[in-house]
């Protein structure tokens, strides 16, 4: 609870947090989505507000979560491309981006204009790759600090380290979503924080609120070090 107290760790900083899942339409009434609850991202948004930041929360689909009090703004989005447009539009003068959202890697290549009718025994939907929002931010990073997430089921550290490098991140929160007490749905998470110098911090299973406070504190420390 100490960690949830107000502090000045991000005082005056502009922070973008993405949360929840994206939805990719396949016809006017259907979509492909994922099980993200949005809990981790909302907890981070709250922790960033508590730390004195000006917070823009870009929210995909969530489990009907309460909007944290004290946000600068909340932008609700549907598809990955909608999320990218929202994030990009606030990126240039923001100081920190934390990308907790579960972003759809693919979308329907040709969403049907009318409701798809039930005809054949099988239905094939061609999928096209979505833009990688975080990769794009990493490519045009100037003063910003970038924090990504990686949901893995195997080789968590190895895959996480690859993502950290490839996306030009300052920190990656890697979690094994197959572990008991971790992942999309629950209120707890088990994470390892990875850093570009190869160091890591393995965290115990804890409440997402508690993990959020740690992520914010570590991000703030990275930003302080950059400016020193
Ligand atoms: N991400 C993103 N845009 C995408 C896909 C992912 O910004 N189109 C972000 C996520 O929000 C997360 C990080 O990249 O912070 C890693 O997402 P993850 O799904 O673990 O990695 P991918 O790069 O998509 O690789 P893969 O799914 O193949 O493991
Ligand atoms: Ca992915």
UniProtKB/TrEMBL annotation:
Reaction equation(s) it catalyzes: N-[(R)-4-phosphopantothenoyl]-L-cysteine + H(+) = (R)-4'-phosphopantetheine + CO2; (R)-4'-phosphopantothenate + L-cysteine + CTP = N-[(R)-4-phosphopantothenoyl]-L-cysteine + CMP + diphosphate + H(+)
Lyase listed as a keyword: yes
Enzyme Commission number(s): 4.1.1.36, 6.3.2.5
Primary role: Catalyzes two steps in the biosynthesis of coenzyme A. In the first step cysteine is conjugated to 4'-phosphopantothenate to form 4-phosphopantothenoylcysteine, in the latter compound is decarboxylated to form 4'-phosphopantotheine. Catalyzes two sequential steps in the biosynthesis of coenzyme A. In the first step cysteine is conjugated to 4'-phosphopantothenate to form 4-phosphopantothenoylcysteine. In the second step the latter compound is decarboxylated to form 4'-phosphopantotheine.
Molecular function as annotated in GO: phosphopantothenate--cysteine ligase activity; phosphopantothenoylcysteine decarboxylase activity
Residues reported to bind CTP: 105, 115, 131-134, 149, 163, 167
Cofactor: Mg(2+); FMN
First-to-last residue of the parent protein present: 177 to 404 of 404
Region annotation (Phosphopantothenate--cysteine ligase) ranges: 15-228
Co-factor: note: Binds 1 FMN per subunit.
Family: In the C-terminal section; belongs to the PPC synthetase family.
Protein name per the record: Coenzyme A biosynthesis bifunctional protein CoaBC
Keyword terms, alphabetized: Decarboxylase, Flavoprotein, FMN, Ligase, Lyase, Magnesium, Metal-binding, Multifunctional enzyme
Domain DNA/pantothenate metabolism flavoprotein C-terminal: 10-220
Pathway: Cofactor biosynthesis; coenzyme A biosynthesis; CoA from (R)-pantothenate: step 2/5; Cofactor biosynthesis; coenzyme A biosynthesis; CoA from (R)-pantothenate: step 3/5
């Amino acid at each position: 609870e100490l960690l949830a107290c107000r502090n000045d760790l991000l005082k005056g900083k502009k922070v973008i947090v993405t949360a929840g899942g994206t939805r990719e339409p396949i016809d006017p009434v259907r979509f492909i989505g994922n099980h993200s609850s949005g809990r981790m991202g909302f907890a981070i948004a709250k922790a960033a507000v508590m730390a004195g930041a000006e917070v823009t929360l870009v929210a995909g689909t969530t489990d009907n979560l309460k909007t944290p009090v004290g946000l600068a703004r909340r932008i609700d989005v549907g598809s990955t491309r909608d999320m990218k447009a929202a994030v990009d539009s606030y990126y240039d003068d923001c100081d920190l981006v934390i990308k907790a959202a579960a972003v759809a890697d693919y979308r329907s290549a040709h969403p049907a204009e009318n409701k798809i009718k039930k005809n054949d025994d099988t239905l094939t939907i061609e999928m096209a790759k979505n833009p990688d929002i975080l990769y794009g931010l990493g490519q045009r990073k100037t003063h910003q600090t970038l924090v990504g997430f990686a949901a893995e089921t195997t080789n968590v550290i190895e895959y996480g380290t690859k993502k950290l490098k490839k996306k030009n991140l300052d920190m990656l929160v890697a979690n094994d979503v197959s572990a008991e007490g971790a992942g999309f749905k629950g209120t707890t998470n088990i994470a390892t924080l990875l850093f570009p110098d190869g160091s890591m911090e393995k965290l115990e299973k804890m409440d997402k609120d508690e993990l959020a406070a740690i992520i914010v504190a570590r991000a703030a420390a990275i930003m302080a070090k950059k400016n020193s």
